[in-house]
Structures are given as structure tokens and as C-alpha cells.
């Protein structure tokens, strides 16, 4: 009797070849075996290989993957089930049923948490056999004494994984058929997408899928030079994915950033996302990874607002923040000058990183190009990304955690996650699916919605053709519609709950009142909360807040500031601005049982375009949409709030902290310049509103009527012009009154620079001309009579010229 205790390996046969990745000292060999898989129950090696292959999501748990390991698009199971599998089964009328090869990489599983090990074990060679211990071995076949182009791969399915790098949808079509035949789905949550597929083994007996299995013989523990250069299995897999997809279906912007190894801002973005992802159990109101969109959803491809779901920011937005903070042109950090950070040309300043890193040991570069990461040593890339990325993180992480609206949303989302994680909910297929769709990435949601649409389309098509609808299709649709309703209920609950938290409403007592009144009030509370959350979920607000803090921090820095001084100034400005902004959203201690308190105050509607408030001021200047280009407006809004009387106590508390004494002194020194900038920006938006009001068709008709009536009454040209001047001046005053009311509704009052100085940087002496005491209010910035006359004359002249040009006024 003999025993074999050696590791049992499975076989794959095919032809082999080789190519390389990289160049020079960073060049890595890639060897491959071109083989095949086949669905079925015969137990052949092709069937075994089909059982071992898997998309990335099945080999490793998504929540345990680092962002450097997230190299694939989300799988669109709906597309696989409704398009690709019918094609393979001959249901689409196509006679040729063939897919081009898919690419897969043979990688070692990492011990402990899921993921992949960065390198193979050191190999040894025996003749034509290259063996990587008990992981796998590759052997070239010798036929009649000659090395042939054929080879065999023997792999240990317990320690290795064959992960699909490209062609995962084609591969999933084949794997789904294989699993349906063998009933081998197990507890796979994606199995329901394929439950309607009924297939006999004979129907797939002649279907094969070519597979190219790649491994990298140089990336092992015995080659430390690659480790020193930061080259490992993750990086080369990502490189392959980028190369093979450049001419394929466009990869979403966020997925592209997850793969980018050249852009320092992409490194910083991934670092920030990883920090959110790696958060363990902590306070229930802190931000978590599910609040950031980083999948292949439509929102990644241009959407500016993440509204209606659990995400309030995205990978794309974080990338823009890091690019601006680390590589913005100097003008971007001026409060009044313009260098639009959403234009890529303005966030490629190579001198700013060197300025930021002044005094950092190990970095002695005069300039650092944003897209030069591949030209630096891995340890230098890590150091640069960590230090510069910290500037953005010291501002945005506290904001996402502690700004009251975000904290309210975080708390409500966390409560929902805990409810859906309860064993009872997890045992319910509908609720379990809701948990996956809401908390496992935006890609899951878009695939599910597409699947539902396809089911409805298929059923409608059958009914149109007067054909019976198979029960399995109706069962799937019934289940999917149940999930959709449950999703809507859960999302409505989050929106309602976060609004109750934000407005400090006692939910139980609020809802216990008269039902008719409660329903209307709940809709109102939810709508007012939604307007706030939608505004704060824009890239415009988030970029505007970031740049407000960074711009102010620049004013606090001494000449040739060191990195540590810059980071300290940034932390101080971040704490001060967050405190000031939270004062705007502050509530009284008592919880409300009716529509009273913050929810009933004008500031609660400051972000509704149709109401008097900040959005109203922006709309008055003829800007209706909140896209990233409005970040400068939100920077202005943040400046107004932080320096308002409403925020005075919170800001003063930060300034009065003994640990902040040096920064507070610099803050007060810079305050006159900041207040001057606020007045200039305020005037800029007021002027935009005046210009818009004077160009409306209604006002132009009013001027036409004044002109025609005056001429009909025998008025001279000079008298006509005087009447037009009067109308223009009246329209200007009317518009300025409306603008000031927008600010009063949001801030409570408008103060002069002298009033703000007396609060935040007390000085002696009487107020200057055009200003009033602490109890009064500055109605309008001081403007000379000649300046007003000139403005009125120019506007009136433009209106009269327009009237003559269109023929409405005679010569």
C-alpha cells in the first residue's frame, strides 16, 4: 500500500508564449498558457478549470480589498444573463457562438484577510519545469526529445486563484452556464440574476471559451529589486487591465482613477478612500466608505450631484480636491482672483508641491509634476502622496464627519445598515438584497435597475407577441419589484430620519400628532432637509469649502513656511471654518415636536433656489444649476457664514483657545484683507444680479414704454434720458434690496467690515463713514454719487441702444 501526502494540483493544458510589461530596469516578463474552459459535468480538466475561475468579486471580499486592488469594473450580471448567455445558447439567431479569449492571472491568495499576495514564492527549475513551491508549476512539453510549443500548468486551487482581469462578462456567461448545470452557485448573492436560465448539459457540450492564463515568473521573493521599485502582482495586473481596455468599452472616470499610477492626485484620492474604508467600529455619525461613489455608475461620468442615494461624495470629487490642494495655481488660493480649479490646466502647478514639502526630510525636489509618479521611487511617491494628501484630508475628513448635515446623514445611514444587518433582515431575501444594493457599491444598484428594466422589456415583448410568460420570469419580476419598493421605502426612511436629526425634531412625538397634519409636515421637513443635502452633496460646495479654508490658510503662513507650519495653519483654519459653518446649522437644545425651531427659520431654506437665501442670490445672477463651476460662489458663501454674527461665538471660541494663540494673532492681522475680499465678492454677485435684472425682457419693455410715452408727450431727448436713468436707478435699488434680503434670510443681518473687526479683532475708534454701530446694519457698501451716476448712465445707454436696434423706439 502506498500513500501520497503531496499537494494535489489540477492541470490545464495549452500552448504557451511570453511578452513583457514595462521597460528598462522595470521590465517584467509575463508568460501565458492559452487554454480553454468548458461548462459541463464530465469532470474533464476543462470543467475543473471552469470551476476554479472566478471574477475578482468572488475571490476576494470587496470590503477587504484595498483600493489598489480594485482593478475591474463592476460585473453587469443583467447584461450577462439577458444578452451573452442567450447568444451562447443560440437564442439570438446567431449561428456562430464564439467568444474571443479572456485574460486571467494566476495569483497567490494572501494569508489572513482576503486579497492577493504581492509576489510568488521563490521558484526552482527542474529541466523544463518551473516550480513555485506548492502554489503552481509550469512545464513545457518535450515531444520526441524536442521542446514543443505546448505546456501544462499545475495549480493548487487552495492557495492560488485564477482571477479574470479582462473579459469578465464573457467569462461570467460561461461560468453561469457551468454553475447552472452543476447547481454550484452556493450562497452567491448574484445567483438570482441567472435563476431563469434552464439549460441541459447537451446544449453546451460544444461550447468552449478560450482563456489566456498569465503569470509573472520574475515577481517572486527572490527578486527584491522589483519590490524596491514598487512593482508587484497588483501593479502589473492593473497595467494589463489599462492596456487591454484602452480600445475597449470606456472605463468610467472613477475607475480610471483607481487604476492611475502616474497621477499623484489619484494616489492621494485612493489613500483618502482607503482611510474611510478601513474605519473600524467608531462613532455612529462618522462618514464611511458607502457614502462615496467609486463604481461605474452614470454619476461618475459627469453627474455633479449625488442625490437620492447614500453617497454624498465621489472618487472623482476627491480627486479634484487633491489636485487643487496639491497642484493649484497661485491665483486659485486668492480670495478674489480667478483660476478655475475644475479646469485641468489650473491644477498642474509643479512648484506648489515643492513649496508644500519645504523642510520635509527625504524630499529635495524643485518641482514635482502631477503626472510624474512613475518617474519617482515608490518610497518617494508614498511620502509625497502622504504629506500633500494630508492637507486635503485635514480639511475634508473633519467636514464629512462633523458638519451637522453630513453627521445627520451618517447617523441615519448607519442606523439603516444596522437594521439591515440584523439576522432577521439578513434571512429575508428582499431585505438582504436591499442591504447589498445600498451598501456594497453604486455598481450593484445600476446593474439591478438594468436587470429589472430588461425583465419588463422581455415580458412586454412576449405579451405583445401573444406568447405565454414563463413562470420563472414572472417570479423574478415579482421579486425584483419587491426589492425596488423596499429600496424606495428604505431611502425615504433615510431622508426623513436625517432631516429629523438635522432639525432636532423629536420624531416619536412629532409623528404622534394628528395624522393629516403630520403627513404634510413630514413632507415639508423632508423637502427642506433634501434641499440642504442636495446642495452640500455637490462638487461645487465641497470644492468651495476646501478652497475657502486653503485660501485663508495661505494668509496665515509666514514667508517660506515649512511643511509643519503649513499643516498646522491648515488644521487651525479647518477647525475655525468647520466651527463657523456648524453654527449656521446649529439647533437649540430642546427637541421640537412641531414645525418649530431651525426647520421654521429662513436659514433652513437658504439653499432652495425659489426661496430667499444663498441659492436665490445665485439665481438672481442668472445661474440656475449647481455644477462644479459654482465652487467660487460657495467659497464666497462659506466666507460670509464664517465671518457672520451668527457664527461669532463659535469662531471666537476657536480663536480664544490658548493652543491657537499664534494662529489667532495671524488671523486677526489678516482679517481686514479677508473682509475686503468678502465685500468685493459680495459686490460682484450683487452686480451680476443687477445686470441680469436690467437685461430681462420685462424691464426692457418697461423702458420702451417709458421712452414711447415720453416721446408721445413731447419730451426732449434729455428729458427722455432722465426718465430712463430714473427707471434704471430704481431697478438697481430694487434688485440690491432683493440681494440684501437674500443675505439677511440666510445670515440674519449684513454687517460692515468695521462691525466684524470689532467682534473678531477688537480695535478702538469710531466707525468710519458709511458704517453704523454694532446694533445697526450696513444696508449698502459705500458708493460715491459719481460712481452710481456713471453706472446708471451706462445701463440706460445700453437699454436705449437696444431699443433703437430692435425698432421698438423711433429715431
TrEMBL record:
It comes from the Bacteria. The lineage of its organism: Bacteria, Pseudomonadati, Pseudomonadota, Alphaproteobacteria, Acetobacterales. This is DNA sulfur modification protein DndB. It comes from Craurococcus roseus. Residues 762-786 are annotated as: Disordered.
Amino acid at each position: 500500500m502506498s500513500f501520497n501526502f503531496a499537494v494535489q494540483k489540477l492541470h490545464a493544458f495549452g500552448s504557451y508564449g511570453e511578452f513583457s510589461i514595462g521597460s528598462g530596469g522595470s521590465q517584467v516578463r509575463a508568460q501565458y498558457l492559452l487554454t480553454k474552459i468548458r461548462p459541463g459535468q464530465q469532470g474533464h480538466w476543462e470543467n475543473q478549470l471552469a470551476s476554479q475561475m472566478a471574477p475578482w468579486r468572488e475571490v476576494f471580499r470587496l470590503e477587504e480589498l484595498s483600493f489598489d486592488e480594485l482593478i475591474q469594473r463592476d460585473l453587469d450580471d443583467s447584461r450577462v444573463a439577458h444578452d451573452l448567455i442567450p447568444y451562447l445558447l443560440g437564442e439570438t439567431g446567431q449561428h456562430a457562438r464564439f467568444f474571443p479569449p479572456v485574460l486571467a492571472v494566476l495569483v497567490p491568495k494572501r494569508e489572513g484577510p482576503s486579497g492577493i499576495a504581492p509576489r510568488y514564492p521563490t521558484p526552482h527549475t527542474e529541466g523544463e519545469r518551473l516550480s513555485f513551491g506548492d502554489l503552481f508549476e509550469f512545464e513545457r512539453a518535450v515531444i520526441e526529445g524536442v521542446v514543443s510549443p505546448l505546456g501544462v500548468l499545475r495549480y493548487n486551487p487552495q492557495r492560488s486563484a485564477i482571477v479574470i482581469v479582462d473579459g469578465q462578462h464573457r467569462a461570467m456567461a460561461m461560468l453561469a452556464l457551468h454553475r447552472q448545470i452543476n447547481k454550484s452557485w452556493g450562497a452567491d448573492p448574484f445567483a438570482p440574476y441567472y435563476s431563469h436560465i434552464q439549460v441541459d448539459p447537451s446544449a453546451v457540450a460544444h461550447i468552449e471559451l478560450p482563456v489566456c492564463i498569465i503569470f509573472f515568473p520574475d515577481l517572486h521573493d527572490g527578486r527584491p529589486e522589483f519590490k524596491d521599485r514598487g512593482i508587484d502582482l497588483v501593479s502589473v495586473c492593473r497595467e494589463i487591465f489599462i492596456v487591454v481596455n484602452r480600445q475597449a468599452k470606456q472605463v468610467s472616470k472613477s475607475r480610471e482613477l483607481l487604476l492611475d499610477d502616474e497621477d499623484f492626485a489619484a494616489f492621494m484620492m485612493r489613500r483618502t478612500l482607503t482611510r474611510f474604508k478601513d474605519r473600524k467600529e467608531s462613532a455612529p455619525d462618522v462618514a464611511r466608505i458607502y457614502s462615496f461613489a467609486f463604481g461605474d455608475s452614470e454619476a461618475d461620468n459627469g453627474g455633479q450631484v449625488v442625490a437620492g442615494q447614500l453617497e454624498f461624495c465621489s472618487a472623482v470629487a476627491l480627486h479634484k480636491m487633491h489636485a487643487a490642494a496639491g497642484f493649484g495655481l497661485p491665483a486659485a488660493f486668492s480670495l478674489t482672483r480667478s483660476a478655475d480649479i475644475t479646469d485641468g490646466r489650473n491644477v498642474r502647478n509643479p512648484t506648489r508641491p515643492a513649496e508644500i514639502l519645504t523642510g520635509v526630510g527625504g524630499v529635495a525636489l524643485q518641482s514635482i509634476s502631477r503626472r510624474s509618479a512613475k518617474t519617482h521611487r515608490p518610497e518617494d511617491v508614498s511620502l509625497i502622496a502622504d504629506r500633500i494628501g494630508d492637507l486635503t484630508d485635514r480639511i475634508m475628513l473633519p467636514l464629512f464627519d462633523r458638519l451637522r448635515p453630513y453627521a445627520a446623514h451618517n447617523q441615519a445611514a448607519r442606523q439603516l445598515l444596522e437594521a439591515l444587518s440584523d439576522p432577521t433582515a439578513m434571512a429575508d431575501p428582499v431585505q438582504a438584497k436591499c442591504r447589498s444594493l445600498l451598501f456594497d457599491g453604486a455598481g450593484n444598484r445600476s446593474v439591478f435597475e438594468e436587470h429589472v428594466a430588461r425583465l419588463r422589456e422581455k415580458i412586454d415583448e412576449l405579451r405583445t407577441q401573444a406568447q405565454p410568460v414563463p413562470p420563472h420570469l414572472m417570479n423574478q419580476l415579482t421579486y425584483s419589484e419587491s426589492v425596488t419598493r423596499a429600496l424606495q421605502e428604505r431611502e425615504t426612511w433615510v431622508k426623513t430620519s436625517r432631516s429629523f436629526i438635522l432639525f432636532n425634531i423629536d420624531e416619536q412625538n412629532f409623528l404622534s400628532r394628528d395624522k393629516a397634519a403630520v403627513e404634510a409636515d413630514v413632507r415639508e421637513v423632508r423637502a427642506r432637509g433634501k434641499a440642504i443635502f442636495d446642495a452640500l452633496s455637490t462638487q461645487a460646495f465641497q470644492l468651495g469649502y476646501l478652497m475657502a479654508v486653503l485660501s485663508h490658510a495661505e494668509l496665515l503662513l509666514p514667508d517660506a513656511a515649512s511643511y509643519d507650519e503649513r499643516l498646522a495653519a491648515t488644521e487651525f483654519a479647518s477647525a475655525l471654518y468647520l466651527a463657523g459653518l456648524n453654527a449656521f446649522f446649529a439647533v437649540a437644545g430642546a427637541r421640537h415636536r412641531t414645525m418649530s425651531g431651525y426647520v421654521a427659520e429662513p436659514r433652513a431654506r437658504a439653499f432652495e433656489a425659489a426661496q430667499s437665501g444663498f441659492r436665490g442670490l445665485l439665481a438672481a445672477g442668472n445661474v440656475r444649476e449647481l455644477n462644479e463651476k459654482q465652487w467660487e460662489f460657495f467659497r464666497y458663501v462659506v466666507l460670509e457664514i464664517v465671518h457672520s454674527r451668527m457664527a461669532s461665538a463659535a469662531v471666537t471660541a476657536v480663536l480664544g483657545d490658548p493652543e491657537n494663540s499664534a494662529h489667532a494673532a495671524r488671523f486677526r492681522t489678516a482679517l481686514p484683507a479677508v473682509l475686503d475680499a468678502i465685500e468685493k465678492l459680495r459686490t460682484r454677485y450683487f452686480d451680476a444680479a443687477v445686470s441680469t435684472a436690467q437685461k430681462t425682457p420685462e424691464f426692457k419693455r418697461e423702458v420702451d414704454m417709458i421712452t414711447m410715452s415720453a416721446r408721445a408727450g413731447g419730451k426732449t431727448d434729455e428729458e427722455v434720458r432722465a426718465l430712463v436713468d430714473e427707471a434704471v436707478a430704481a431697478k438697481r435699488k430694487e434688485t440690491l434690496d432683493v440681494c440684501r434680503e437674500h443675505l439677511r434670510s440666510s445670515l440674519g443681518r449684513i454687517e460692515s467690515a468695521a462691525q466684524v473687526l470689532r467682534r473678531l479683532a477688537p480695535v478702538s475708534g469710531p466707525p468710519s463713514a458709511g458704517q453704523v454701530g454694532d446694533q445697526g446694519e450696513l444696508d449698502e457698501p459705500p458708493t460715491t454719487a459719481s460712481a452710481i451716476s456713471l453706472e446708471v448712465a451706462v445701463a440706460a445707454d445700453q437699454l436705449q441702444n437696444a431699443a433703437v436696434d430692435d425698432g421698438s423706439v423711433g429715431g
